Amino acid sequence: MAKVYIGLGSNIGNRQQHIKNAIHELKAKGISIIAQSSLIETDPQGGPLQGKYLNGVIAIETNLSPDELLHLTQSIEQKLGRRHRERNGPRTIDLDILLYDQVTLTNSHLTVPHPRMKERDFVLKPLSEIAPEIVKDLFHENH
Ligand code: A4P
Ligand code: MG
Questions:
Q1: pTM, rounded to two decimals
Q2: Of 115, 103, 9, 13, which is closest to residue 57 (Cα–Cα)?
Q3: Closest-lying ligand to the alpha carbon of 44?
Q4: Candidate of 57, 71, 87 to mutate for ligand 1, largest count of ligand atoms within 8 Å of Cβ
Q5: What is the rounded distance in angstroms from the CA atom of residue 93 to the CA atom of residue 53?
Q6: pLDDT at residue 21, rounded to an integer
Q7: Which of 15, 108, 141, 142 is geometrically suited to a Cys-Cys bond with 10, CB 3.0 to 4.6 A?
Q8: CA-nearest residue, atom 33 of ligand 1
């Protein structure tokens, strides 16, 4: 089983409900949720003028490979009504694979660890709530 951290973000409509629905969809696909941060309201970073986000992080356990998991998270984004693909633009739900065990990988559609997570308080804050030691390590490893 791999332990994976997933970042959740929503800034359209009933943001809390979208996040709940995404977690429900993951469970329905056999994924165990082993930790869940609180949800925080955050100012949008990058992209066009848009509403505030609700952000959180969950820890899951899965037998899916990184690519299979991306496929699943993208199908959940689609199912929950994410249609606009504007980069950094508003979205009903965004699921980012932050960390997958100790795996480091880059291919045409997936980079793990998520390349921008270290610059983003809306990721680091909820992540440090459920995995403080990981956040500490992130900043010690590469210096
Ligand atoms: N992709 C590559 N690596 C990954 C990964 N580790 N996890 C690819 C998920 N996807 C990954 O993503 C674009 C492509 O990234 C995917 O097709 C996938 O193959 P997307 O979700 O379609 O587009 P996006 O999310 O708009 O772009 P991007 O570059 O992923 O942006 P981020 O990093 O997700 O940031 N401000 C606040 N306050 N809160 C937020 O949640 N989110 C963003 C989006 C910007 N500003 C924000 C927030
Ligand atoms: Mg994304």
A1: 0.94
A2: 9
A3: 1
A4: 87
A5: 10
A6: 97
A7: 15
A8: 116
Residue 51: name the closest of 85, 15, 27, 19 by CA. Answer: 15
Who's near 47: CB < 8 A, 6+ residues apart? 86, 87, 88, 89, 90
CA 127 to CA 38: how far, in whole Å? 10
Q: What are phi and psi of 41, to 5 degrees?
A: -90, 130
Whole-angstrom distance, CA of residue 9 vs CA of residue 121: 13
Q: Which member of 91, 116, 120, 121 is catalytic?
A: 91
Q: How far apart are CA 21 and CA 3, in angstroms?
A: 21
- 91 catalytic, yes or no? yes
C-beta of residue 29 within 8 angstroms of C-beta of residue 125? no
Would you say the CB of residue 48 lies under 6 angstroms from ligand 1?
no
Percentage of the chain lying above the pLDDT 70 cut: 94
Ligand 1 lined by 122 (C-beta under 6 Å):
yes
Task: pLDDT band for 40, please (50, 70, 90 cuts).
Answer: very high
pLDDT digits (tens, 9 = 90+) for 89-110: 778 999 999 999 999 999 999 9
